[in-house]
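Two proteins follow. First one:
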Amino acid sequence: MDPLAVHKALANPARADFLRWLKTPERYFDEPYYRERGVGFHIGVCVTDIQERSGLSQSVVSGYLQILREAGLLVSERVGKWTFYRRDEETIAAFAAYVRDEL
């Protein structure tokens, strides 16, 4: 985990929102819609749904998600033609410990 990359990734309010939404996706996204399609939040949330909730363009959302993934905060998974994102809780815990112990 690169603490500077994590700080940079979280410096953007929209990216911080994405991370918060993915912490409790059932609060922000339509869980029955996912269940009907045989996909659970354990796989993640579809880029399209994140884009719709944010109101940002698809290209901006994809770029922001890529920054969060490269910082180690998200994991992506392809299911068919769709990409789903979920939080990487190990990296998030390591960063929280770094902030608590080092700063």
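Second one, unrelated to the first:
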Amino acid sequence: MKTAFVFNGPNLNLLGQREPQVYGHHTLADVQALCAQACAELGLALDFRQSNHEGDLIDWIHAAGQAQQAGQAVGAVINAGAYTHTSVALHDAIKGAQLRVIELHISNVHAREAFRHHSYLSPVSQAVMCGFGVAGYALALRGLADGA
């Protein structure tokens, strides 16, 4: 069984309490359960993680890229949070690891502050999803499974 990785960046541990008018009332535990159900339906194993530290995300991307190259993974859904708009390092990690990525945002970042309109991840991602709320995670996982 191949693995689908789901990596969540800074402040996503605050889902359900941080700006619920933007991000909704679901917690990160709810998102993990939703992803587990989607992966079970798709015949995939789930590796679900969150960190507020950029280096953790980079290390996980490298490892996921190795797993994908070994035929053990279908890729990763990455909600990098604010690192999306600031991290050349994440861009370089995805590109260097040759990891298949779907960039995900819970909110529609293009309807928010101007600084959120630019993504360093989009150029190295297979697809970008935003504005579907936490339901976007299951959609993104389906995209990974369909393209595997």
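SUMMARY FIELD: The chain has a mean pLDDT of 93. The CA atoms of residues 19 and 34 lie 21 Å apart.
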